[in-house]
């Protein structure tokens, strides 16, 4: 009699690798992917791009941001190829040229998104295929203070509802559609409000980088309950800058201390009053802002969008990227 084949031990099932749309890379594995991409920035240039409190040096640029600029250059070329295929298919119907490649950069307040976005802008503009790289921050689409006050949203600044989301999406849609000139309002950290009458103009870039807390938020459903096209639908690539919440809080408070010694001293600064009180009192205010606004926004709105990013950069306590997760499917 033939005995039945032994069934596979249960543990074999348990250890079968789970299907995942991502590839996880250590810093060393990722930095090896730079290939022969040359380093086009000097230490002085990196210094100028660095945000207050951020730690970034040439090693970080070489190990993390050069491989990323190489990957993005490959993506831009491949996306052009796809667009060519679509143009061939559509013929006269919908053929379009000069569509910019759009990159979203998301993450918490004080995680260092601006530095990542500025570095990408500098690195990507060095490639001959796409020299014109524009950077836009979403704070220009925050509702003006007058409007936030009228809607009772002053303590919700940075939450999705504190933005004019339709105007932001329309702005990116117009750029993507190849409109010759597209304008956006301008926000000032100095006056903590939209600057009346000031405009930022974007003229047909090769690449557009859109940086902000909520850029990966799904679109709000329309009044009829139907799904609408959202901002992230216009992205060809997106980066989520990630770190432990405790580390980000420390970076936020340290930056507040530095701003108190610099930008807040300006007589026009909204925060000038925090230069007139003790450091401890000023820090109490910053801690409260973190605890009541920025942290809840991170937990409720920003972090849940992380899984939508093409690439997640995970920073360690010293701002250096330790791990990366790249979407492969
Ligand atoms: N109150 C402020 N006054 C002046 N500059 C500020 C103030 N708050 C933030 N900034 C600067 O604005 C930029 C964006 O900050 P933020 O939105 O927290 O994003 P991130 O730190 O992720 O880049 C940073 O360069 C920061 O240094
Ligand atoms: C202006 C911000 C909402 C960030 O805007 P973003 O460009 O990410 O849209 C944020 O930096 C901010 O000021 N938050 C309000 C709470 C605070 O003062 O920290």
UniProtKB/TrEMBL annotation:
Occurrences of domain Phosphoribulokinase/uridine kinase (ranges): 102-253
SUPFAM superfamilies noted in UniProt: P-loop containing nucleoside triphosphate hydrolases
Chain segments carrying region Disordered: 1-20
Functional pathway: Cofactor biosynthesis; coenzyme A biosynthesis; CoA from (R)-pantothenate: step 1/5
Catalytic reactions of this protein: (R)-pantothenate + ATP = (R)-4'-phosphopantothenate + ADP + H(+)
Entries under Pfam families matching the protein: PRK
UniProt entry tagged with the keyword Ribonucleoprotein: no
Keywords: ATP-binding, Coenzyme A biosynthesis, Cytoplasm, Kinase, Nucleotide-binding, Transferase
Molecular function as annotated in GO: kinase activity
Location relative to the cell: Cytoplasm
Domain of life where this protein originates: Bacteria
InterPro entries given in the database record: P-loop_NTPase (IPR027417), PanK (IPR004566), PRK/URK (IPR006083)
Protein name (database record): Pantothenate kinase
Protein source organism: Streptomyces daghestanicus
Gene: coaA
């Amino acid at each position: 009699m033939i005995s039945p084949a032994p069934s596979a031990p249960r543990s074999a099932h348990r250890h079968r690798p789970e299907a995942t749309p991502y590839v996880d890379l250590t810093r060393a594995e990722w930095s090896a992917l730079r290939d022969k991409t040359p380093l086009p920035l000097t230490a002085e240039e990196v210094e100028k791009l660095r945000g207050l409190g951020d730690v970034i040096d040439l090693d970080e640029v070489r190990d993390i941001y050069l491989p990323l600029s190489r990957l993005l250059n490959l993506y831009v070329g491949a996306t052009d190829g796809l667009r060519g295929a679509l143009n061939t298919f559509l013929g006269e119907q919908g053929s379009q040229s000069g569509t910019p490649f759009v990159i979203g950069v998301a993450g918490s307040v004080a995680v260092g998104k601006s530095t990542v976005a500025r570095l990408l802008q500098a690195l990507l503009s060095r490639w001959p295929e796409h020299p014109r790289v524009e950077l836009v921050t979403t704070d220009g689409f925050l509702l003006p203070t007058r409007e936030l006050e009228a809607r009772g949203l002053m303590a919700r600044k940075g939450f999705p509802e504190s933005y004019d989301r339709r105007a932001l999406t329309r702005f990116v849609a117009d750029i993507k559609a190849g409109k010759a000139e597209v304008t956006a309002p301008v926000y000032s950290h100095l006056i903590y409000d939209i600057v009346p009458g000031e405009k930022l103009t974007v003229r047909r870039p090769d690449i557009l980088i859109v940086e902000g807390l909520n850029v990966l938020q799904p679109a709000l459903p329309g009044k009829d309950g139907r799904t609408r096209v959202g901002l992230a639908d216009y992205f060809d690539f997106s980066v989520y800058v990630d770190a432990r919440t405790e580390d980000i809080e420390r970076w936020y408070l340290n930056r507040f201390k530095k701003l108190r010694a610099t930008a807040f001293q300006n007589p026009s600064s909204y925060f000038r009053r925090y230069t007139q009180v003790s450091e401890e009192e000023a820090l109490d205010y910053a801690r409260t802002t973190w605890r009541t606004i920025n942290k809840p926004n991170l937990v409720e709105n920003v972090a849940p969008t992380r899984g939508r990013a093409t690439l997640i950069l995970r920073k360690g306590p010293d701002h250096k990227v330790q791990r990366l997760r790249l979407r492969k499917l």
